Amino acid sequence: MIESETHASAALSQSSAHPQPAARQRTSQSYLALRSLRRHWQLYLIALPALLYFIVFRYIPMANAVIAFKDYNVVKGIWGSPWAGLKHFELFFNNPVFWTLLKNTLSLSLYALVVGFPLPILLAVCLNEVRDGLFKRLVQSVTYAPYFISMVVMVSMIMLLLSARLGVVNQGLGALGFNTINFLGDPSLFSSVYVWSGVWQTSGYAAIVYLAALSGIDPALYEAAKVDGASRLDKIRHVDLPGIMPVAVIILILNVGNLLSVGFEKVYLLQNPLNQGASEIIATYVYKMGLLNANYSFATAVGLFNSVINLILLVLVNAFARRVSDVSLW
Amino acid sequence: MPIRSAHIRESFGDRVFLVSVYLLLTIVLLVILYPLVFVVSSSFSSPLAVSSSRVWLWPVDFSLRGYQVAFSNPQIVTGYANSLYYTVFGTLISVVFTVLVAYSLSRRLLWGRGAIMFFIVFTMLFSGGLIPTYLVVKNLGMLDTRWALLIPQAVAPFQVIIARTFFMVTIPDELAEAAALDGCSDLKFLWNVVIPLSKPIIAVLVLMYAIFQWNAYFDALMYLKSDALQPLQLVLRGILILNTFASGTMDPEVMAQRRLFRPVAVYPFVGTLCLRGRSRFPAPVRLSDYERRGRILPGLAH
Question: What ipTM score was computed for the predicted complex, to two decimals?
Fold first, then answer.
């Protein structure tokens, strides 16, 4: 919470700091503000509903997060509850479950990143090589169709297909003479089930962004490459990939910034008593501690830890990207 | 002499490469298609054929029994009705709020728009977390009411960015100035000029918000208690997922035989409902547009 506020105000003051002298700037700024308000009050008015929404449902929760430093008591309310200092954070860090949660969360998201980031690029580049026509349209439609399946239905499909005895995958393995695999009950397979089903569901959709970037590449570059005798592979390496690099960097940054907030919805649905050792992540733990056990302050502390790490990662990766590739979020 | 560039012969290497690309895409196509076909086939097969694993590609012992059972389940019927309600009204609220704020922030002469944009975009980078948000919803008295699914997720910052970029690209400031000179107010201009010109982006927003609403289950899990308010996804979760592990044992066989006909019956319907808009679905985020403009998060640019 505190971090967020100082961060926000620091960035804000930075953005309004102009090379102009301070006094002159203030008068001209307030003059501009007044004039803008008088002429365009209607524009401010229509922005108001959404701004109120952001204040109430995004910023007040940030302020409410102070309960991480308090012993929240429903009767006394958020501001009336007694301070507890860093007690809840210490409880969390000293809890043996902390390292398991961190390990599960990080390994799941890194695995998802390493597999899930390059595959849509590969798909888009391949599709881009194919001549426009029925086949291309078919592949494109089919690959992004699974994106529209809801998470609940997706997970029950996973269960249907991978179930230990009835699942069609295990039926197939059995027919080919292999041992059946308990995909959903084996903790060591949990991350693979999670990641590869995610690849199945979202690669086609994620590829759309890259296809759009590829279609924006100047055709003259391809013609020049052709004249220079470039092979298809050369064109991919020297025209396609540099062309989609800015988009790829931005998506990579966003993914890294979400490293600790692995999709709660899917993990929670895939959890069962047998794979819990590998499937308990920070987000599901917050939900269970907070809403199921009504341990509000503790769960908020865990969630806050998660958000702060995410923010730090995002800022670091963004700075790194800006230095290395000149593409960044801000 | 005519240039016959189209007839430059492809080298052997290029042809090998192209064949392997087609091969790879065919494999991808089959891998993605198979589970979809399997699930649809299962839903049209007799429950016995499904539970004895005789279905592997096409329907076996064609039967509509699954659908009959699903749609005579009152829970599923209310679930559909509720989900329809949340999707229609949630999308309406979201799109109206998003379009209004995005248009307002797209006007370059609006004083303070950079700061306001930052105010919105910052919520993408940092959040108070699950419990503090829950407490807000609780303190507003929204728990266990339909509002809890319509309002707390109403505006997505990313959608605001997309819409704002669209307005900035398609509605030149000169147009607004000309209208203002003719005595047209900002609101009138928005209603009579901007909205008619912005059908593509409104369609995108409607689709994105509607899919989000239709597929969401977690907010309902947190905020709703009454059965009468449950959206379809939560009903499905109860039927399809929880029962499988209810006893804590990993032997779903017995239960599956009883249950299997139900789940398979509901899938394809949900699927087709969501897929209907698919073919006209435009590229969701034309990141390339932002990239040409420099940074993707405009509010954070100094």
Answer: 0.80
